UniProtKB/TrEMBL annotation:
Residues 1-43 are annotated as: Disordered. This is Uncharacterized protein. The lineage of its organism: Eukaryota, Fungi, Dikarya, Basidiomycota, Agaricomycotina. Residues 1-13 have a biased composition (Polar residues). Residues 26-36 have a biased composition (Low complexity).
Amino acid sequence: MPAPSSCASNDSGRSFFDHPRPAPSTPSSRSARSTPEGLVIPPIPPTNDPLVVTLDTHGHRVFLRVSDAPLQVDSSHVRRLVQFNAAPVPKCANCAELAIDCSFVEAGIPCPPCAILGIPDCDWTNPYWFAQNLRHCRDAYIRHERDSLVTAVREDHLAPSLFEREFERVQVWFYASAQGAITRFLLNARATRDLAVRGYGALANASTDVAHLLRFLAIATESRMHPLTLQIVANRVQTIIASMMS
Ligand SMILES: [Zn+2]
Ligand SMILES: [Zn+2]
């Protein structure tokens, strides 16, 4: 797995968030019978992973709700999650196919080429891609925290009986951020969806100049604009011609 580009510079997962736990128990509060051997180490990724996309009864892609106490969408922790991209050099599949430069702003916002060419399926707006990205962040962060807890127990800084509670706290903290990130992703995606298609459609509808629209179609085709946009402008041309003939 390549090193994350921004969320965890050393892949420790620690750079996501501040430490969610209180200071370890003092030695005097430890149980004399505490030993690390009895710990049950939680698996990473967890079984029954909640960070997945499913289909609702209407066939729409939806995220499972992972927290009832999400962080605000403008939280710095949420921002780090939506601005993280696991790829060392993020490039969406469309830009790769077109052999052009891509750029990643944050999850839910298409890259500039996809946005202006009206390509509706930029990877950065794909919920499956985002869920995978979140899982990558979660696994790095929770693995680091889990290993720190295990070390704390082994070095007698944390009572084994508190391990489970502390590990739960780590998870609650992460999923509160993840839920905020999912909301921000959905808001971003909704705000930017079909901007080019709607924009060019509005411009075409405002024009009655067939020659101008045909020139646009020629350039747009040459520029590999998405067929959806081309079709909208072509439909406008047909409508104008039909009105001239009637
Ligand atoms: Zn791209
Ligand atoms: Zn793209």
